[in-house]
Fold this sequence. Notes:
The protein is mainly alpha-helical. It has one domain (2-191). The chain has seven helices and no strands. The protein has helices at 2-13, 18-29, 38-47, 52-88, 92-115, 120-129, 134-191. The radius of gyration is 17 Å and the shape is globular. 32% of the residues are buried.
Amino acid sequence: MLRNLYNWTLDKASHKKASWFLVLISFAESSFFPIPPDILLIPMILAKRLQAWFYALICTLSSVAGGICGYTIGYLFYTSIGSIIINAYGLTNSFDVFQCYYNQYGIWIVLGAGFTPFPFKVITIASGMFNLNIVLFVIIATIARGLRFYLIATLLFIYGNVIKNLIDKYFNLMVTLFFILLVGFVFLLKLFSFSC
Length: 196
């Protein structure tokens, strides 16, 4: 079933409106949507490698715009909307710990979360809630997301055929490993939810 979804995504990635879907997913993922834009970015680049940096650019810009939306949710609407999103991910305890250290390490947290697979929406909402300087937030989010998406674009541009062949050959194993890592990550978050 996931193999069919991968093939369908790869097929849709070459569609003329794929860029708009990438913008939508990138924006939404930074403020409320659970699916990372990499799911569409990677097959789009594999389908049209000469467009790699364009896709990285629109992914970065729309992700930062979505981050500003997430920031606004945290700043203006945390009690009514933001807390629901944080609770939906089961990160309330981790969020409380995060709040204790945010003022001291906020910039580094935004940088790390923007570059890694950590749910960026949690950080964007927290940045607004804890009133991180918005200009600084936008600069750091742009750097982090840009590094992430341009790194993906560069690797796929250079090694696209090799990576595509590896994905095609080991798709089921990669999906299994991804879900094991995801479950392990959530487990570790819950296990190490200590208080300040």
